[in-house]
UniProtKB/TrEMBL annotation:
It comes from Thiorhodococcus mannitoliphagus. Residues 98-198 form the FAD-binding FR-type domain. PANTHER family: NADH OXIDOREDUCTASE HCR, PROTEIN RFBI. CDD domains: fer2 (cd00207), flavin_oxioreductase (cd06189). InterPro entries: 2Fe-2S_ferredoxin-like_sf, 2Fe-2S_ferredoxin-type, 2Fe2S_fd_BS, Beta-grasp_dom_sf, Cbr1-like_FAD-bd_dom, FAD-bd_FR_type, Flavoprot_Pyr_Nucl_cyt_Rdtase, FNR_nucleotide-bd. The lineage of its organism: Bacteria, Pseudomonadati, Pseudomonadota, Gammaproteobacteria, Chromatiales. GO terms for molecular function: 2 iron, 2 sulfur cluster binding; oxidoreductase activity. Residues 3-91 form the 2Fe-2S ferredoxin-type domain. Its cofactor is [2Fe-2S] cluster. This is CDP-6-deoxy-delta-3,4-glucoseen reductase. SUPFAM superfamilies: 2Fe-2S ferredoxin-like, Ferredoxin reductase-like, C-terminal NADP-linked domain, Riboflavin synthase domain-like. It comes from the Bacteria.
Length: 342
């Protein structure tokens, strides 16, 4: 049985499948409900049930104790009829609590010659709410900390996916590549940053990534898939050579899931047999779209790429308010960097 859930005061509507909690249904469809522990203990997900019927798991001891009648814990409540629920959605970084949580390195996977993927498992009793495109600060056992973009969409909040490039002289990235073992306990702090997918805009989207700047853009595209975004999305990914590309199956998957998705890889030092686009990635964008007014542009990658792209895009009519950037910086020092630090 499928039921309809209406949220007030914004009048957002979505559906829940049989046996699915309100929060599970909301996350699956990209609706930003508040939450924390996801086990009915913290009360962060509470809303007011205006009408309809819900069920809780038997024997649940929850944060409902002492709260007024009509309080609904969306992480535990399974709707058994159509519902109207009064609850404030979280759509901007300032509305989401920054938290520090332990995590376990569940999987470490080499994606290409100098990029690894870390899959971080959060505690069963804790979850990190975030917006697609934000980042976390990752701390090693010895306290060294760097910031890395979250590469997965918020729907998959049991894990955090990070893409980390090996940086020459980078103490933290070198340790991650050479010494960090699966099952290691780490610490994260987040979510952080104002780089996130603006879901309420109607403008066509251009995404420009350099290197592991692909990571936050991947999260945004997965979010677009989850919410059924119909706006055109064109992803340009700039790297040096073909071996720097990774996860090659994803763009074709996204093309099947999003009716208006396009992907253009651009190589600055192309292989001899490369027949695709070459040069600087932002120049490829301008060749295809000389008039950028009316677009929304997301750029993520090294500062030099960001600076060149911003100057060129603004000169071609892009409004500053519709240019969103996430510049990765690299350091061999044990300090917190912007996303992708060494």
């Amino acid at each position: 049985m499928t039921v309809k859930i209406q949220l007030l005061p914004e009048e957002t509507t979505f559906e829940a499948e049989s046996g699915e909690t309100i929060l599970e249904a909301a996350l699956r469809q990209g609706v930003g409900l508040p939450y924390g522990c996801r086990n009915g203990q913290c009360g962060s997900c509470a809303g007011h049930l205006v009408s309809g019927w819900i069920q809780y798991p038997s024997g649940l001891i929850t944060a409902l104790e002492g709260k007024k009648a009509g309080t609904c814990l969306t992480c535990q409540a399974v709707p058994t009829s159509d519902l109207v629920l009064e609850i404030v959605q979280r759509r901007a970084p300032a509305e989401i609590e920054v938290r520090t949580l332990p995590c376990r390195l569940e999987r470490k996977e080499q994606l290409n010659h100098d990029v690894v993927r870390l899959m971080l498992k959060l505690p069963e009793q804790q979850r990190l709410q975030f917006l697609a495109g934000q980042y976390v600060e990752l701390s090693l056992k010895d306290g060294r900390t760097r910031a890395f973009s979250i590469a997965n969409a918020p729907q998959d909040d049991a894990f955090l996916e990070l893409h980390i490039r090996q940086i020459a002289g980078g103490e933290v990235t070198q340790h991650i590549f050479d010494a960090l073992q699966e099952r290691s306990i780490l610490r994260i702090r987040g979510p952080l940053g104002d780089f996130y997918l603006r879901e309420d805009s109607q403008r066509p989207i251009i995404m420009v990534g350099g290197g592991t700047g692909f990571a936050p853009l991947k999260a945004m595209i997965e979010q677009a898939v989850a919410i059924g975004l119909q706006r055109p999305i064109h992803l340009y990914w700039g790297v040096r050579s073909r071996r720097d590309l990774y996860l090659p199956e994803l763009p074709s998957q996204w093309s099947e899931q999003l009716p208006n998705f396009a992907f253009t890889p651009v190589l600055s030092e192309p292989d001899a047999d490369w027949t695709g686009r070459t040069g600087w990635v932002h120049e490829a964008v301008l060749q295809d779209k000389p008039q950028l007014g009316g677009h929304e542009v997301y750029t993520a990658g090294p500062p030099a790429m960001i600076e060149a792209a911003e100057a060129a895009f603004l000169a071609q009519g892009l409004d500053r308010e519709h240019l969103l950037s996430d510049a990765f910086t690299f350091s061999s020092k044990p300090a917190v960097d912007a996303n992708g630090g060494g």
